[in-house]
Design a protein that fits this description.
By secondary structure, the chain is mostly helical. It has 15 helices and 7 strands. It has helices at residues 62-85, 92-99, 108-121, 125-142, 154-166, 171-190, 226-234, 242-255, 261-266, 297-309, 326-350, 359-372, 377-384, 389-396, 401-409, and strands at 3-8, 20-28, 31-41, 46-47, 52-53, 277-281, 290-294. Strands 1-2-3 form a 3-stranded antiparallel β-sheet, covered by helices on one side. A two-stranded antiparallel sheet has the order 4-5. A two-stranded antiparallel ribbon has the order 6-7. Strand 4 and strand 5 form a beta hairpin. Helix 4 (125-142) crosses helix 6 (171-190). The longest helix has 25 residues, at 326-350. It is elongated, with a radius of gyration of 29 Å. The termini are far apart.
């Protein structure tokens, strides 16, 4: 079996600038052949033992160059493996022809597109949107049609962070972009489009690299006080008005264990609403997680209100049976969320509630009210659910339905 080594070409003299050509040496038995790689280096800037460029060659590009050198070895070994699988006898000319075929390795932006399309095919429309926006902001900064993964260095990310700050992005938004880029890089490593050695992000294993935890700021208060919540409960808007609709959206989420609006929009009378319980699978959890929420009296009142206007199909009127496309459903839910939140903020101003009202505040308020009345954090977390399976499982063990039913009764402040 042939062996490979990347080295300074022993056959060629130095050029006028003192550099010498880099080649791939292919050895079969005692025969050696060389393939020029189109690179050159000064001998003092070359690590002959490790077959790679030293930092002194070019501090900005040496990692990318070494990454490409490593790919040459990987590609060479794959070609030989394919020869064996296809029972093709080795010949240097045949190997050289295969080796010199252009490699189709996607760059960062291309891999973003691949990932986004994969998510759409899995109906992960929300995640696809997150990656789409992260890609666009990165593209604005890079200002080039494509960038390679080796270009994604610690210094590059630090420059990108500075750019986003100057552009007016909040720390939380930048943190969100960086977390998405890091996830994309890990996907690229798994797909063999990048190597772990090129990881520009800090890790517990290397103790070096770009960090972005400092960008995550404590969010402003998002839970209503009991007094403010009671203001909303007692608020009597005009019947069938947008204010009445928004109020019931907020309170439904609050009474239904902080249910998010996506899951509310997908509730169906024929599938999820039982005589005394709401049973559904949460959309946002990575792994299948079912919820069984007792229908306490205030929640039943809201369901009766909804039933008057939508007695079949979906509980809420955001979706209907004619819209089956996941992307279109997602768009409708996002549009409805914006409209409801806009009206909720108007209601908040009317009631002189300092915390800006949104559907997300309902989820925080649910947890805050239970906590203030002595409910353990473990039970609250079980009722709210978690995005990570291992975190969720910690809180799934040992809780009987009766305990959760009793906790729900604490939500009724009347």
């Amino acid at each position: 079996m042939p062996t490979f080594k990347i080295m300074i070409d022993p056959r060629s003299p130095a050029k006028k600038d003192g550099t010498r050509a880099i080649v791939l040496r292919v050895t079969e038995n005692i025969t050696r052949n060389y393939i020029p790689l189109g690179l050159s280096v000064k001998p003092e800037h070359w690590d002959a033992t490790l077959s790679k460029f030293k930092r002194a060659h070019d501090p900005l590009t040496y990692k990318e160059l070494n990454y490409n050198l490593n790919r040459y070895i990987i590609d060479s070994e794959k070609i030989i493996s394919d020869f064996g699988v296809n029972k093709i006898p080795f010949s240097f000319n045949h190997f050289k022809a295969k080796f010199l075929i252009p490699k189709d390795i996607p760059g960062v932006f291309k891999f973003f597109d691949i990932t986004i399309e994969m998510m759409k095919s899995r109906k992960e429309v929300g995640n696809a949107g997150v990656y789409y926006h992260a890609k666009n902001r990165l593209f604005e900064y890079h200002k080039s049609k494509e960038m390679s993964f080796p270009e994604m260095t610690q210094s590059f990310l630090e420059g990108y962070e500075t750019y986003l700050i100057k552009d007016g992005c909040s720390g939380n938004t930048i943190h969100h972009y960086m977390r998405t880029i890091r996830a994309l890089f890990y996907r690229a490593v798994k797909a063999d489009y990048a190597t772990p050695e090129l990881n520009p992000f800090y890790s517990n294993y290397t103790r070096k690299g770009y960090r972005f935890s400092h960008l995550l700021k404590a969010t402003s208060k998002r839970a209503l006080s009991k007094a403010d919540l009671q203001k909303l409960i007692r608020y009597q808007p005009a019947p069938l008005s947008k204010e009445e609709n928004a109020k019931y959206f907020f309170l439904f989420s609050y009474y239904a264990w902080g249910m998010n609006i996506v899951d509310m929009a997908k509730l169906r009378w024929d599938k999820d609403i039982l005589p005394n319980y709401i049973e559904y699978f949460r959309t946002k959890t990575r792994y299948t997680k079912s919820f069984r929420i007792p229908i306490i009296e205030p929640l039943r009142e809201i369901l009766n209100y909804c039933h008057n206007y939508s007695p079949k199909g979906y509980v809420f009127t955001i979706l209907n049976d004619s819209v089956t496309d996941t992307a279109k459903q997602y768009t409708r839910i996002k549009t409805a969320t914006r409209l409801v939140n806009r009206v909720l903020k108007e209601i908040g101003k009317t009631l002189e509630i300092e915390t800006p009202l949104t559907t997300y505040v309902a989820r925080h308020t649910f947890a805050s009210v239970l906590k203030s009345q002595g409910t353990s954090s473990a039970i609250i977390k079980e009722m709210m659910g978690h995005t990570k399976e291992e975190t969720t499982e910690i809180y799934l063990k040992g809780f009987e339905n009766k305990i959760l039913d009793d906790a729900s009764e604490l939500l009724n402040l009347k």
